[in-house]
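In line with agreed milestones, work has continued on tokenised descriptions of protein folds. One protein thus recorded appears below exactly as we store it:

>
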Amino acid sequence: MNNYRVQLSVQSPRAVIMIRPHNFYPNPDTAEDNAYQKQVPDEAMEVIAQRAYQEVTQAAETLRQHNIAVYLFDDEKGESPDSVFPNNWFSTHPGGHVALYPMYSNNRRRERRQDIIETLKQNFYVQDVTDYSGQELDGIFLEGTGAMVLDHIERVAYTAKSNRANEIALQRFSAHFNYEPAAFDTQDDQGQPVYHTNVMMSIGTHFAMVGTELITDPTRRQEIIQRLQATGREVIALSKDQIDQFAGNVLELASPEGHLLALSSTAFNALTDQQKETLERYVRFVVLDIPTIELAGGSVRCMLAGLHLTPRVRENSSKEQADC
């Protein structure tokens, strides 16, 4: 790896929040517009829940071994089958800003937890919390950094239009948080919009991975590619098959040793040798084995709510990585 590894970047969080589910199962309320979600027989639910619990536990431990601070919360209630994907209901931003988002599915709205927000306030400098969740009453939805892939450096919010990414909500977020909205149309193999942008796009400090084939308008596709290239990033095009294997649902993280790319074993195996070689110029791979979680139509990026906040200085800083 070149000298990029010693550089810090606002693009890459050094801490994440994860949710460990006790009653995980693919959410039937989200299956209609999530082409990546799988159906499983009812009799397998208990086994699936146990495996999901173990996968999140091991994933958190692996990230900690790579010096990523993990705040791990348990979801014991079983009322929110997608609670393992917290990046959809809140996001954090430099300067101490937090946003709460309006969720498309009724049973996903129960994922919002005040104890998580309080943990953020206790451990990081939080200046304000902007709550957009009231837009649910008007049928307006924007599911956080699932719906938007944020370029924190250039201040661009890349967004695939869908039921879960309303352009009115996008405009409001962009105005409040000083981002340039960059919306575009997509189509998956079933002929419907990609449900979340972060399934098909990931932006690192020096690269971007994009499922270019899924952007329907050729002119807009080229505009998105050129916009990313104009930042000096190397654009890595992902095929539809690679997107199906969650190769776009990855997240760059920052450790004291340099940049990491957290991704699933499914995604890692879908990348070509040339793509891996390109990425290794900028990051080290951290491969997480989460096949059960991926049954719900999301992967590693969906599991990690990145913390772009300044930590409070504490004497007991060794407790930064905590089970909550």
The two ends are 35 Å apart (CA to CA). The chain has one domain: 3-323. The mean pLDDT is 93. The CA atoms of residues 185 and 217 lie 7 Å apart.
